[in-house]
Amino acid sequence: MLIYMYLSIFMFLSGLLVFSMKKDHLLLMLLSLELIVLSLYLLIFLYLKLMYYNYFFSMMFISFSVCEGALGLSILVSMIRSVGNDYLLSFSLLW
């Protein structure tokens, strides 16, 4: 059980590292955010299992994260259709 907690903490920190390093591409930022969300889901699931709680909150969390992922992909598709790429630097020219 402890190895899974260390794994999820490592996933969270690596997701934060990729998110902070790859600020140019929106797709890489979305992928690192999904890695962060999955690591948080694993931590919540392990905590609920350890404390013998109900898993209802974890299902709510995963449904909200799916909605967040769909919203991010829709923004990515609309940005690629309007600008032609997913560089965030070219997105600032539209303002």
TrEMBL record:
Q: Which GO terms describe its cellular component?
A: membrane
What superkingdom does the record give? Eukaryota
Read off the InterPro entries from this record: NUOK/Mnh_C1-like (IPR039428)
Coarsely, its chief localization is membrane
Localization of this protein: Membrane
Q: How does it sit in the membrane?
A: Multi-pass membrane protein
What name does UniProt use for this protein?
NADH-ubiquinone oxidoreductase chain 4L
Q: Which gene encodes it?
A: ND4L
